[in-house]
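quick one before i forget lol
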Amino acid sequence: MEPRERCLRAVLREEVDRIPLSIWIERPEPYGSLAARLGESDLERLLRRLQVDYRGFLPNISFLGIGLRGGFEPGWVEVGGRRLWRDSWGVLHATSSDGRTSMHVVHPLEWMDVREYPFPEVNEEDYAAVEKFRREHESYCVVAYALQPFETACALFGYNAIYRAMLREPWKVDYVLDKLFAIAEQQAALLADAGVDQVYSGDDVGAQTTMLISPQLWRRFLKPRYERLARAIHKRGAFFHFHSDGWIEPIIPDLIEVGVDVLEPIQPECMDVKRIKEAYGDEISFEGGLGVQRLPFLSADEVGREVEWLIENLGPTGYTLRPSHTILPGTPVENIIAVYDAAARCARRASRP
């Protein structure tokens, strides 16, 4: 099968010739080391070497989406003796000393009235670039990014503040989420019209062992808005690819009801991925499953065995193999290559008469 057909069949839980493959690797390291080891400085050749079936959204490497314009002027600002980065939403970020992580430290809705906040506008001119990318990658499954509204709202309010507002001033949260989901819906419609196969959205609402928001509040503030987003995507013939890290078991039935087609990353550190597949695999497809928290500490042989276990237990369809998040700095290059070599071995064995 061509990669696109393979991926679309997997999402529909139809028969495939092998498990589709994807990747999430966005940092200069280990991406640079992987490219050097494979002797592939070009991203497209690297993806072909690993037999990755997807193209489009690779944060910081290959961003495919409809951008925004307006809002705040991004740049460095001085606050209390610290030099912080301000994004176009007006959120100030502090970066760790090693440069690997950042956190929000100043939130514009701490001091602005939500009705006065200058929400950015969708840059419809990006449509042509998405359409061109689709044509250039016609044999691959193309995934593109639409805004993650709840995470954006959390950055605007601050986590503590948004949860307080949900209980004390819910109209503020409704007002902001309506604005943000309208942006996401407009982006999603443009992406689907441009021919992408999957629109990537959703929000991180899970921690390692619990949810960041109660299922009750999630259903009150987010579920009906995701349902409208799903309708906008499906109306134009694309799939809804929903991302949330962490433990989100209580809302998986809700995501199915909303119309989510692909759920990722189903982190094995947080959930029993085999049980999740057995419980919901007839109604939704999955992507991920290979824990990046453990990947740096396994041997290449152990990685291979884990990949084989995932393919056996999450396949034979309705599943795309991929590390559960961006591959972390410090992950041995041998382990990254072992993921895709093991998948290729499984595919060869499955094709033998």
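fyi The radius of gyration is 20 Å.
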